[in-house]
Amino acid sequence: MDSSVASSAVLPRAWLSTSIALLSATTVVLAPAFGSEDFRVSGLFGQTLRLMAAAAVAFALGAHAGSVLPWLSRKVREEVGPSPPLLAAGTFMGAIGGFFVSAFLSTLVFSRMGPGGALASRAALVLAVLAGAVAGAMVLGRFPARPPASGAALASLVLLPFVLLAPGLWLLLSSPSFPASASIAGRNSWAQKNLAPHYGQASGFLRSSPALVERLGTDLAIAPLAGTKNRVVYGPGESTASFTLEVASPKGRGRCEVEMTIPYSPKGAPPSFGPAKCEIEGLILDLSGTGEARPGGYTAPGPRGQGVK
Fold first, then answer.
1. Which residue, of 173, 200, 222, is where some domain finishes?
2. What is the pTM of this model?
C-alpha cells in the first residue's frame, strides 16, 4: 500500500460512530445474559470471568461488524477503512483493560463506600469498559485496509468471526441443564446434587416451618421451579442463595420464595433465613426467619382449590 496513504490513515469519525453503535447494540442484546446466574453455583471469580469474557466478545464482534458492514455498500467499496481484524483486536484488548481498571477501583474504592458502592461499581464497569474499547479502536483503527475484491471473500470476512465465536459464547452464557420438564422428584434430585448444601437447607427450612406444616402437612414434596430465581453465590465473608420452590402435598400445592445466608465464620455456622413468602392455594403466607407465620398470617385470600401453577 502507498506509504502516503498509510501515513495519513486515521479512523474516520463515521467508522468510529458505526462501530460504537454496533458495540452498544451487541452489548444491550447480551446484557440480560450477563446477570443470568439461575441454576448455577458461582463465586465472584466465576461471575467476573463470565462477564468479562462475554463483554469482550460482544465488543470485538461489534467492532468487527462496524468495520466491515459499510463495505457492503457499493458507495464505500473503494474507500480505505480500518482493518477489521486490528479494529476488533484493539476493541477487545481495550475492553479487557477497562474491565481490569474498573475491578481495581471496585476493590480499593467502591467496596468501602457502603450501600452506594455497588451502584458506583456497576457504573465504573460500564464506563471503563466502553472507554477502553473506544481507545483501543482508535489506536489500532489507524491502520488502513481495503475491502476484498470478490463478494465471496467479503462475505467470509463478515461472517467468519461470528461463526467461530458464537458457539463459545453460547456455551459461556448458557445456564446449566436444569430438567425443567421433570417431575417434582426429578427436579428435587437435581437440585440436591447441583445446588448443595444450600438447597437442602432451604427445603429443610420449609419442611420444618410450623405454619407451612399446619397448612400442607408433613408429607411435603419440594423442588425448584423452572424459569424462576434459583441461585447460589459465594461472596466475600458469606454465601447467599435465593430459591423459588414448588411445594406440594395431598392437602394442596403452591410456591415459596426463600432467601438465605451462610457466614464463613465461625466454621459450621448455621444458615440464616430472611422472610419467606409462600403462595398456597390462592393464599399468601409470610414466614419469619424461623418458619413461623408473621403477624397477619394468611393474607390476600383467593378462590380455594385453584393451586399455584
1. 173
2. 0.57
